[in-house]
């Protein structure tokens, strides 16, 4: 009975990649999961709420409006008191609710 070489998981994983010239780093030899392109880890991104106008909302479907309403509500919950992001979120919620009411 002949003994054959059984490749390890690492060898199988590394062999599936095609090496390219000029690559900045080797993705097959990472020490752990990459969390972001620049490997700085997960970042808390500040999301700025843009005011949703009635004109913009008129072109949206009802399901899109409900999704925007959810996003505006989440932005309101994350915003600090007495900031322009909070005022934009409140005004957007009002505009979205008015648009949904008009469609009934």
Mean pLDDT: 75
- The count of β-strands is 0
Q: Could you list the spans in which at least 5 consecutive residues all have pLDDT below 50?
A: 15-28
- Gyration radius over CA: 25 Å
Question: What is the tally of helical segments?
Answer: 4
In percent terms, what proportion of residues is strand? Answer: under 5%
Largest sheet: none
Question: What class would the helix/strand composition place it in?
Answer: mainly alpha
* Fraction of residues in helix: 40-55%
Name the helix and strand elements from N-terminus to C-terminus, one letter apiece. Answer: HHHH
Distance between the termini: 78 Å
Instruction: Name the overall outline.
Output: elongated
Describe the 3D structure.
- The protein is built from four helices and no strands.
- By secondary structure, the chain is mainly α.
- It has a domain at 68-104.
- Residues 15-28 have low confidence and may be disordered.
């Amino acid at each position: 009975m002949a003994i054959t070489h059984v490749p390890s998981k690492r060898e199988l994983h590394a062999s599936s990649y095609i090496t390219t010239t000029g690559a900045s780093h080797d993705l097959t030899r990472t020490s752990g999961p990459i969390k972001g392109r620049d490997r700085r880890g997960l970042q808390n991104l500040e999301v700025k709420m843009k005011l949703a106008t009635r004109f913009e909302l008129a072109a949206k479907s009802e399901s899109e409006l409900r999704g925007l309403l959810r996003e505006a509500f989440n932005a309101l919950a994350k915003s600090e008191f007495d900031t322009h992001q909070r005022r934009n979120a409140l005004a957007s919620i009002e505009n979205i609710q008015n648009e949904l009411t008009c469609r009934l």
